[in-house]
Design a protein that fits this description.
244 residues, alpha+beta
Length: 244
């Protein structure tokens, strides 16, 4: 794999997309930046990061042959990979928050954005964007649920070593991302899911504030929540949130 390290750019995913227009690039090519001024999260949200303190990178992957209908397993495999890469650090209360945030001590330390290029109902290539808060200690007031590895562990982390570990874990996990392993990938994901089977208060534009518990995800990746009347409703991205 190739790891391209740059300083300040718009975003690592945009850089990769531009690189793709100049000709073929190697599978698993990674672009890592010290700072990006146009970083994005899910549904166009902005990713804020202090320059030089965190891991901001994107990875180009091709050749899956995976059908679009199975795209959720790609998200699951990537979430599992980053979770596994962080496990050796012995982070307290490390969890995956649906669909693919990584939490430590109940606060967000990592966001993942997966962008697929599709051809005839098949995923032709994927760009995986990752923002992991590593050594940043202070966050904007509006990001009250954000934290970092340094805040959680009380020590600085070598970013280069951690980047290599995450890249290796993603590569290995994606090699296993085949239909024969879908169920195992999903079971691993659910076993590490934040608040699974735990009664919580949620909020939704239609239901308002309500009590429920997460019971899983469906075949398209939507979150399944069991309500107090024991009915199960499914929710897409940004359709439901924990009531803090």
């Amino acid at each position: 794999m190739d790891i391209i390290k740059v300083n300040a750019i718009e975003s690592t995913s945009t850089f990769l997309k531009e690189l793709m227009t100049t000709g073929p690039i190697k599978n698993y090519t990674v672009v890592s930046a010290k700072s990006q001024f146009g970083g994005r999260g899910q549904m166009g949200s902005k990713w804020v990061s202090e320059p030089g303190k965190n891991l901001l990178f994107s990875m180009y992957v091709e050749g899956f042959g995976m059908f679009v209908k199975d795209a959720m397993y790609l998200n699951i495999a990537i979430s599992n990979a980053i979770y596994n890469a962080l496990l050796p650090l012995k982070i307290p209360n490390l969890k995956i928050k649906w669909p693919n945030d990584i939490l430590a001590g109940g606060k967000k330390i990592c966001g993942i954005l997966v962008e697929n290029t599709i051809q005839k109902n098949v995923i032709k290539s994927t760009i995986i964007g990752v923002g992991l808060n590593v050594n940043q200690e202070l966050f904007p007031l509006e990001l009250k649920n954000a934290s970092s590895l340094k805040n959680v562990l009380g020590k600085s982390i070598n970013q280069s070593i951690l980047l290599n570990s995450i890249v290796v874990n993603i590569t290995e996990e994606l090699e296993l991302c085949t239909s024969n392993n879908f169920q195992t990938l999903k079971e691993t994901y659910l076993s590490n899911m934040f608040k699974l089977q735990t009664p919580c208060m949620f909020k939704n534009d239609t239901l308002g504030d309500f009590m429920g518990k997460i019971v899983g995800v469906n075949t398209t990746g939507k979150l399944l929540i069991e309500l107090e009347d024991e009915s199960i409703k499914e929710f897409g991205l940004k359709e439901v949130a924990f009531l803090s």
